[in-house]
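User: I'm new to structure prediction. If I give you an amino acid sequence, what do you actually give back? Let's try with this one:
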Amino acid sequence: MRWRAAVQIAVAAGATVIGTVSSDEKMGLVRKFGAREVINYTTHDFAAEAMRITNGHGIDLILDAVGKPTFEKGLACLAPFGHLILYGSAGGAPDPIDVRRHLFAKSQKISGFVVPMVYGMKEIHRRGLDAVFQLAREGKLTIPIGRTFPLAEAADAVRFLQSRRSTGKLLLIP
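Assistant: Good question. You get back a string of structure tokens that encode the predicted 3D arrangement of the chain. For your 174 residues, that looks like this:
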């Protein structure tokens, strides 16, 4: 559920957040964490909606944790000089792209991000942790607990997490 932190950090930085969800049940939760607009990407063309919401400008920064179901549409609504960061693939790996067709036309950028890469970069890791803890101290970043499971039901917790129905951190209680 890295998206919760991403939404809260973006709002704290002054960004207007447009969130996407895979079910209507998650829309209120994304708004609760600060998204101004929320689009269900399984029932709506979120690229068209994002272009409408931004009056045709597009999205300057897209953080994509889903992958295959959202990647192409993300590129379609990415603003000129925009940046799409793929940091997960809950819906599968995106299809390959034609760099010239997708990126050159609007001078866009795509990059990938995985947290473990930061662990080896001690100074960057420390600065990031300091900033996150500061936001938490200021009440701008919270970590919600979605559900708890007894440790003996760890397998059920993993299945629940894999079902993508989880809406908060899962805790295993000994």
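You can read the tokens as a compact description of the fold. Here is one thing that stands out. The first strand starts at residue 18 and ends at 21.
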